[in-house]
């Protein structure tokens, strides 16, 4: 009987984690939409800026793979962000035939200022956890991210079951 209750409690906790992760994902989208609107960007452009910032510089192909956008859509996205002054194209030092995209120095300072209070509060929250707890959280998030990327890749490779509206 105790084992059954323990199993039910575990299943309930797994469900609760799933619910919170879904809500966190939805909240992340809402934050992105709110910040993007403030700067006249669409959310995809803002998220791509973040991907570029995280990696330092990326190729158009890497952006396409990360987002699922077509090569033409990625080119249009890069053109938009370049015209807006956020990114610049640079030669790949390892392969002169390839072009990379990076954030233009000083171009996202205003965006960073908008995120700064949230980031400060989040770092304050995360700092309350022990190193051991943070290792578990980092492992959970990393493995969840890898699983999500794999699932998105699988979905992209499947044919749509319904026509778009």
**Could you state the order of secondary-structure elements as H and E?**
HHEHHEEHH
Low-confidence stretches: none
Distance between the termini: 50 Å
Structural class: mainly alpha
Please describe what this structure looks like.
- This protein has about 160 residues and is mainly alpha-helical.
- It has a domain at about 40-105: Arc Repressor Mutant, subunit A (Orthogonal Bundle).
- Helix content is about 70%, strand content about 10%.
- It has six helices and three strands; from the N terminus they run ααβααββαα.
- It has a three-stranded antiparallel β-sheet.
- β2 (about 85-90) and β3 (about 95-105) form a beta hairpin.
- α1 (about 1-40) crosses α2 and α3 (about 60-65) packs across α4 (about 70-85).
- The longest helix is centred in the first third of the chain and has 37 residues, at about 1-40.
- The radius of gyration is 20 Å and the shape is globular.
- It starts with a helix and ends in an 8-residue tail after the last helix.
- The model has no long low-confidence stretch (mean pLDDT about 90).
Task: Describe the structure concisely.
The protein is mainly alpha-helical. It is built from 6 helices and 3 strands, in the order ααβααββαα.
Using brief descriptors, characterize the structure shown.
165 residues, 6 helices, mainly alpha
List the helices and strands and how they pair.
Layout: H1 2-38, H2 43-55, E1 57-59, H3 60-67, H4 71-83, E2 87-92, E3 95-103, H5 109-126, H6 131-157
């Amino acid at each position: 009987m105790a084992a059954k209750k323990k199993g039910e409690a575990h299943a309930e906790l797994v469900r609760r984690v799933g619910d919170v992760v879904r809500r966190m994902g939805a909240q992340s989208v809402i934050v992105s939409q709110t910040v993007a609107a403030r700067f006249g960007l669409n959310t995809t452009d803002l998220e791509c800026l973040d991907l570029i910032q995280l990696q330092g510089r990326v190729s158009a192909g890497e952006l396409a793979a990360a987002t699922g956008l077509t090569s033409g859509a990625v080119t249009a996205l890069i053109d938009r962000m370049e015209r807006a002054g956020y990114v610049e194209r640079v030669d790949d030092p390892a392969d002169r035939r390839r072009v990379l995209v990076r954030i233009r120095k000083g171009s996202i300072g205003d965006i960073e200022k908008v995120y700064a209070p949230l980031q400060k509060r989040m770092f304050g929250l995360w700092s309350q956890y022990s190193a051991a707890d943070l290792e578990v959280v980092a492992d959970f998030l990393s493995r969840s991210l890898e699983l999500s990327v794999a699932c998105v890749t699988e979905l992209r490779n499947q044919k749509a079951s319904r026509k778009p509206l």
